[in-house]
Design brief:
CATH class: Alpha Beta
CATH topology: Alpha-Beta Plaits
Strand order of the largest sheet: 1-2-6-3
Strand content: 35-45%
Number of helices: 3
CATH architecture: 2-Layer Sandwich
C-alpha cells in the first residue's frame, strides 16, 4: 500500500498529539479509507476521522535564485480516546518538561 510517507512533525502538530490528532504526509493517490486502513495495519489504532489537505507548490527565492517547492498532501488523523501511536510520546513529554 504505502500511502503514508512519514509523520509531519511541526510545533503545531505536536500540540494536537495530546488530543489524539496526528499529522502524516501522504502520497498523491491516497484517500481517506486507505490512510485509515494503513494506520490500522501498521500501528493497530482506529481512526475516528481522516481529513486530507492539499498544499500547493510555492515559489521561493534564496539568494536571488528562484525555485519551487513541491506539491504536498497532509492527512490529519483523529484517533479514538485512549489510543496512541508508539514513538510520539517522547514529543509530548519533551513539551511538558520545558
Amino acid at each position: 500500500m504505502n500511502t503514508i510517507k512519514s509523520p509531519f512533525i511541526t510545533e503545531k502538530s505536536t500540540f494536537g498529539i495530546t488530543n489524539g490528532l496526528y499529522v502524516f504526509e501522504i502520497t498523491p493517490n491516497a484517500n481517506k479509507t486507505t490512510v485509515a486502513e494503513e494506520l490500522k495495519n501498521i500501528y493497530n489504532v482506529d481512526a475516528l476521522s481522516v481529513r486530507i489537505v492539499n498544499l500547493p507548490a510555492k515559489q521561493k527565492t534564496f539568494k536571488r535564485v528562484k525555485g519551487i517547492r513541491n506539491i504536498r498532501r497532509k492527512a490529519y488523523v483523529q484517533l479514538k480516546e485512549k489510543q496512541t501511536i508508539p514513538g510520539f510520546e517522547t514529543l509530548t513529554k519533551a513539551k511538558e518538561t520545558k
